[in-house]
Each structure stands twice: as C-alpha cells, then as structure tokens.
Queue: 2 jobs
Job 1
Amino acid sequence: MAANKTMLFLPGDGIGPEAMREVRRVIGWFDRRRAVRFDIKEGLVGGASIDAKGTPLTDETMADAMSVDAVLFGAVGGPKWDTGSFDMKPERAILRLRKEMGLYANLRPATVFPELAEASTLKPEIIAGLDIMILRELTGGVYFGEPRGIETLPDGTKRAVDTQVYTTPEIERIARVAFELARKRRNKVCSVEKANVMHTGVLWRETVTALHARSYRDVELVHMYADNCAMQLVRNPKQFDVIVTDNLFGDMLSDLASMLTGSLGMLPSASLGDADATGRRKALYEPIHGSAPDIAGKDLANPLATMLSFAMLLRYSFDLPDDAALIENAARDVLSKGIRTADIMQAGCTKVSTTGMGDAVLAALERLGA
Ligand code: NAD
C-alpha cells in the first residue's frame, strides 16, 4: 500500500465547517475503496481560532500547515469579529498561511457546467462548457512593493504611494507554472500585463517570451493587455485556456472570470508554492466563497466548491487525476439530475440541503466509481 498522504483541514467559520463535513464524507468513501489512505489533522482558523486561542492562527497550526502534504481551507470571517483590530481579523490567518508557505501561484479555474449555463448573466452560448484557468501571481507586485504608505506634505495635503515591483525570477516561476498547467490542458497560455504603459509589464513580457523560447516552444503563447483581456473575457471567454498575470490584474480578472459562471458556491481554487527536493509543493486549497454568515448553520450552503477544491488537491498535490475526475464527474452527474442547493436552484429542479447535496454526490460516486 502507498504511504499515507497527510492533510490539514482548517474548516474556519460560518459555512466552512458545514461544507468540510461533506468533504469528510467523500473522503470516507475513498478510504473504503482505494489503496491510498489519507491522514487528516484538523485545526482552528479565523474567528473560531480567535474565540478559542485568542489569535486567528496559532503557531502550532501554522507548523502543522508547513508539515503536511496539503491544506484544505474552508472560509473565515463574520460580523462577530468585524470590530477587532487589524491583527485580530480572521482574514489575517489566510495572509499568514500564504506568506509563510510561500504560495505564489494562485489557480482559479472558471468552469461552467453545461447544466448551470442559465445561471450566468451572459448568454448561455457564450459560456456553456467554459473551462479556463486564471493563474495569478500571489506574493509580489503592488500589494507588497516598497515604498508604500501615505504621507502628509508641507502644505497639509497628502500623498499616497504603492509600488509595483517584479523581478525576473518572480516572473519566471509563475510563467513556468502556467506553461506546465497548459501542457496538461489545451496547451495555450495568454500572458497578461500592460507593457504599453508599465515597466513591470515590459519586463513581464520579455521574461515570459524568453522562457517560452528556451523551454516551452510546444505551448502556444499569446500576449494581451489587461484591459483588453477584461473585454475579451466577457466577449468571448472560450478563446482562453490558461491566463497568467500579476497580483493586481489577477485579483480583478479572476473575480471577473468567476462571475461568468454565475455561482460562487461552485468555484474551487488552489495556491501553490515551490517544489522541494522531493518534488512536493506547499499547497493550500479553498473554495473562493467566504463564510456566508447569512446562511451559516442552516444546512443551506452549497458544498460543491469545497468538494471541487478537494478534487484539485487530489490532482495537483497527490497526482491522483482519476480520483479528482471522479469527484468532478459525480458533481456533474448530480447537476444533470436536476439536484440543486438553493443558490443554484432553477425551475423544475429538486432543491436539497447541504447534507442532501452530500448524499447525492455519494450516490453518484457509488454509481460512477463502481
Ligand atoms: P461570501 O462569499 O461569504 O457570501 C456572498 C454571498 O454568496 C452570500 O449571500 C452567501 O450566502 C452566498 N454564498 C457564498 N458561498 C455560498 C455557498 N457555498 N452556498 C450558497 N451560498 C453561498 O462573501 P461575503 O458575504 O462578502 O463575506 C462574508 C464573510 O466571509 C466576510 O467576513 C468576509 O471577509 C469573508 N470572506 C472570507 C473568504 C475566505 O475565507 N477566503 C473569502 C471571501 C470572504
């Protein structure tokens, strides 16, 4: 039997624990049927950790995150903790995890299951079958560059500065992830910046072009300005396969792309760091939605985004693409049978609870994985 894979589960706040509970049931199904077993630790994060430990993330939990093969994160935050100081915000936990784990590559797939094409604000023919990957650089650029801050000038007015900085190695490592991902998909990379007006854009384009020429000539590469990319994502999103871009543009373009799909409760994400000598990358997987305090504790949350995050974990951290596809196909099968949580409910479909969606996915796994 293969060595056990280790995971840290951080359910967090609000609907995080409810969605994670359904993932546990999926793992139970795999444990009963597969050679690979999973060792799971669970920890507190966000508001739950503030309440129990007085901090959004303890050093012990941080150490656990560093030692496992992969982290599955639920969601953090809620009105209860909104009044705390900056360092006592539940969201600080996710920033610390990203920073200390060195998670520089943020993968945000935007996939539209054909059954949910009507949920988008765009015409179904524009987005049905959409399957694109936005790759955002996560630890550099204008959110971290120095100098930054606000100063008061001698005349009493103020001056604010943020600095966009990128180095060749930072651009190369994210571009490398983009090309490798593309090779496992439809082999196309669109690199996005604003080389027409920004020096970092010029260096970005030069670096990506040089790396492509050196190591990835088999992958189709195009360059696009970020403003045009925003337009193209709405006009004809299916032209893209992998889009790679910096922290700032990636923040916006990935949110734009996620809304093409029309449903927050369906979208997973992954954040990856560098591979170590054994080839293992630090990795954290999470749904893109937040803790949804408005529906927390009511058995209403859609658990599919968290389940699909677990599928990404199987694909990218554990190299188990067949098992990942089994979960994705089970989700598709459930949707094709008209089973819906409230957030994706459509006329003529059957509305189910969080638990009901978990039941339906398990039944689909039974059917498809037999
Ligand atoms: P949200 O994603 O929590 O909710 C937005 C809306 O979508 C709500 O109406 C919610 O009910 C609905 N929704 C979200 N996920 C759903 C699901 N799985 N099933 C059904 N409906 C779902 O965003 P928000 O309301 O802006 O933020 C709420 C809290 O979450 C805030 O404290 C915010 O800071 C935090 N947040 C955390 C993360 C994270 O942990 N990574 C991300 C975003 C927001």
Job 2
Amino acid sequence: MSLQNKKILLIIGGGVSAYKALDLIRLLVKNNVEVKTILTKGGKEFVTSLSITSLSNNKVFEDIFDVNNEKEIDHISLSRWADIVLTLPTTANMMARLSSGKADDLATTVILASNKDILLVPAMNVRMWLHKATQNNLKTLLNFGYKFIGPVNGEMACGEYGEGKMSSPRQIFSYLHDFFNNKDLVKKKNISALVTTGPTREYIDPVRYISNESSGKQGYEIALALSKLGVKTTLIAGPTSINFSKDLNVKKITSAAEMMIAVQKLLPVDIAVCAAAVADFKPKNRSTQKIKKDKKNYNVLNLEKNEDVLEYLGKNNKLRPKILVGFSAETENLIENSTNKLNNKYCDMIIANDVSKKKTGFNVDYNKILIIEKNGKIENLPKNKKSFIATKIAKKIIDKILINDKNPN
Ligand code: CTP
C-alpha cells in the first residue's frame, strides 16, 4: 500500500483534540509510516512528548529557540525530510498565524520553509470556525495551496454542536492513504497532459493583429496544479504577461495555426485541457507591408475561420486524449450554450464561465465557474482565486482518469 515507507512530519497544535494525534501516530506507525513530530507550546499543554516518542519511536522536536538543539532542529532539513507536513489540531489562532506568514516558532517556520504539501486539520468551536476572520484565513490558506481535512459536523468538547469538530484519526488516515495512492498512481502510470492557454494573435500586417483580452492565468494555474499532482504537463501558451514557473514545461506560440502544430506534436497525451481563447478568425492574406489608411483599404479585411484545436482533439479517433476538457466563455445562456459546445466538440467536461461579469473571468485573478460533465452533472464553483479553482479542476480530472483506468469500458 502506498502509505508504506512514507515520511510524515506531524505538527501537534494546542487544542483539546491533540490527544487524537496519539491514535493517529499509532495507526501510521503500524502501517510502516515514519512519523516525526513537532510539539508546539500549546500542544504541550495537552499531550506529553514522552507519550509521542513512545508511539512514534522518534524524538519530538519542540522549540526553534532551543539553543542546545539548534544544530539538530534545522527547520529546512526537517521540512525537506518529510513527504508531507500534517498539522493537527489546527486552531483558529494557528490559521491566523499561517495566513499572515508568521514564522515565530518551529512549527510555523517549518511550514513557511516547506516545499511539500501542507495538510491542515482544523478543530475549533463552530462559531470560531464560521467567523468571517477564520473563513477569510481559510480562503488565504487555500490560495497558498494548503489542503484541509475537515472539519466535520458533530458535538464538540465545549458541548456545542456544529461544524468545527476535528476529523477522526481513521478519517485522516484514509485521506492520507488516498492522497499518496493517487500521487503514486499518477507517477507510476506516467500520466501526461497538455494545456492550451492565453489568446492567439492573428496578424493583419506586420504591426496589427486580431486578438482578445485573455490573460492566460486560468490555463496556467491548471497546468501548475496538474504538474503538482505528478502529471507530466506541457503548457502551450499564446502571448501573455505571465512570469512562468521554471518547473513547468512551456511552449510559447503566437497564432492559432502555431497552437495547432504545437498540440499535434505533443500527441498522444492522456489529458488535454483547452483553456485558450483562440481567435476564431484570421485574415486570409497577411499583408507584408503596413496597410495604409487609403479609402481603398476600408474593406481590406478578408477573414477565414481558424481550425478548432479542441474539436480536432475530440474528433481524433486515433489520438483522442483519455480526458478532454474544454472551456466555454459565454455572456448569455451559459449552461445551454456550454452544453452544446461540450457535445459539438466531443469533450468529457467543459468549464463554463460567464464573461459578462467584469470581476471574474477574463483578465482578472478571480473566476466563478460551472463544471459540466458529459453525463449532464453540473458542479458549481463559486467565486475564488484562479489558483484555487485550478486545483479543484485538476483534482477532478485526475480522479476521473484514475477511475476510468480502473473501470475501462
Ligand atoms: N477552441 C479551440 N480552437 C479554436 C476555438 C476554440 O481550441 N479555434 C476551444 C477553446 O480553447 C475552448 C472552446 O474551444 O476550450 C470554446 O471556445 P469559445 O471561444 O468559448 O467558443 P467557440 O467555439 O469559439 O464559439 P463562440 O465563439 O461562437 O462562442
């Protein structure tokens, strides 16, 4: 099983549910997971390092300012050692500190310095969880890419009932199991993806072109999210101002025709996400000289249709990606028009966004989308940062591809 031989850095926070950490350590160690722990000052009020050491068979790390351990408690190597950093219970205070980027003890310093996935397991009173401040912090932390397990509904230590109760050690264990399982599977299966993004430019003459407002951000974030999930990803990007991450394989193109060639060169791939706002038309003949404003040139634009990349992929009998995702930018009849595109271009899913609203969609950091599937299922993702929306889309794609592989038709 894929949890075997994984290394988990467990940060135990100051909350009454801290005792559940002991049960989780027992479960993990029994399944051959190596667990190292950081016990925060608050955590020490609820569990002892002696009980943690006896269960984890590892030394417990405590304070960053411990002079005697300065060499040993190297926050960088501790965060590099782990496959994952898990924090439980994550209190409202811990969420606030993490969302403001604090690094004033060993736990927060390790998290800030980490290059691994950070999993937070909140536990707090229902009012504290639902408070605007905590919910704002939640949004910030999700935007950092941190993942959350729970909280769940239930009766709390304070006697109140509601959302805020910490997930049980079994639930956390099963989340970790699925998390590693999927990551291992993606790597083992060598899953590949191409993502198109940005606008295209169709030149009329050497200095003028037809294009659109697309910033390419949503497609870029999806490519990043897929690649973080272990997918071998190439981003085919039209002209944008994005400062691409060096970790991502990017192929820059200008026109729709170049995009098509770049896509064809990458086939076959397991996943294709067409997020680009490809210009629908291009001038039939590109003038080699700058077109003058003579009256005779008023009707100089003679347009023809660009080839449709998404449709080409959908109709490609031999090289159709296993999962094909399209985008649909609409200003009216969002569901109906997008469903038509999904069917006409033979997609598995279409990401529909209403571009009539200025604050979401084109050329902004936020988006608000519907994911429409071939079987008619619709998931609504309310307004959020494009990076967050991207992680949701990427996760959905991976879940789908892994399920399809388990149950081939
Ligand atoms: N698309 C593409 N190649 C094209 C045109 C569109 O790959 N030449 C893809 C887009 O990347 C997107 C989907 O098709 O995934 C839908 O694009 P959209 O612009 O919303 O719709 P169109 O099909 O161009 O139709 P219309 O502009 O009439 O709404």
